[in-house]
Amino acid sequence: MAILSLPAFKGVIYVNASISPEVLKVQKFGRIARVCCLVVMASVALGTILLVVARAKGVPIDLGPYRVLNDQLPPILRAYVLVCFAMVLAIVFTGLFNLYGLFSNFARGEIYTAANVRHIRQLGLLALAWAVLQIVAPVGSIILLQAGFVDPAVVVKTPRLVFGTANAPSFITAGLILLASWIMEVGRKTQDEAERMRREAELVV
Fold first, then answer.
1. What pTM did the predictor assign?
2. Domain count, the chain
3. Residues pairing with 13 in the sheet
4. 153 within domain boundaries
5. Which of 2, 66, 116, 198 could form a cystine bridge with 159, CB 3.0-4.6 A?
6. Where are the beta strands (DSSP E) in 39-104?
7. Going by C-beta distance under 8 Å and a sequence separation of 6 or more, which residues neighbour residue 34?
8. Are 124 and 174 in contact (CB under 8 A)?
9. How many Cβ atoms sit within 10 Å of the Cβ of residue 93?
10. Which structural domain range is residue 111 located in?
11. What is the pLDDT of residues 146-184, one digit of tens each?
C-alpha cells in the first residue's frame, strides 16, 4: 500500500499500487456508465409521464397490428393495454436497475463476481422476455379484435401481423447476453480456482 501526502488536501491519500491499469479502466468506465444509467432512468421516467399525459388527452393507442382511439377503448382492451404497459415498464426498469448494479460493481473494481454474473444473466432473461412480448402482445391484440371486444369502427390502422426476420435481432441479443453471463461465470470460477491454488502453493512453501 503506497501512501502519498498532498498538502493541498490537508490529509493523506491511499493508493493501491497493486491495481492494474486494466482494472482502473474498468473502474473509470463503471463510474461513467453508472451516471449514464441514472440519466437514462430519469429520461424513461419522464417519458412515461409524458406518455400517460398524451394518452389522457385522447391520443390513439398503438397496439402493434392496429391503432385504437383512446377515448373509445372498451374495458377489456383498456385492461389489456394497462397490463402490456406495466410489463414493458417492469422489463425496462428492472433492466436499468441491473445495469446500474453491474456498473456500480465495475466502479469498485469488482469484475468476475457472482453478483455480476447474476446481473448479466437477469439482463439476458429480460431481453428474452422483451423479445417474447413483441410477439405475444400483437397476437393478443388481434385475438381481442377478432373476438369482437374491439369495435372495428374505432380502429385507425388496418389490422395485420408481421413476424419474421424483424423479430430475430431481439432473440439474438438475448442469446448473446446469456452467453456473456456464462462466459463471465466460467471466468469467475477460473479466477477462484487460480486463487485457491495460489494460496495452497503459499502454504506448501
1. 0.78
2. 1
3. 4
4. yes
5. 66
6. 61-62, 67-68
7. 100, 103, 104, 107
8. yes
9. 14
10. 23-204
11. 888 777 777 776 666 656 666 788 899 999 999 999 998
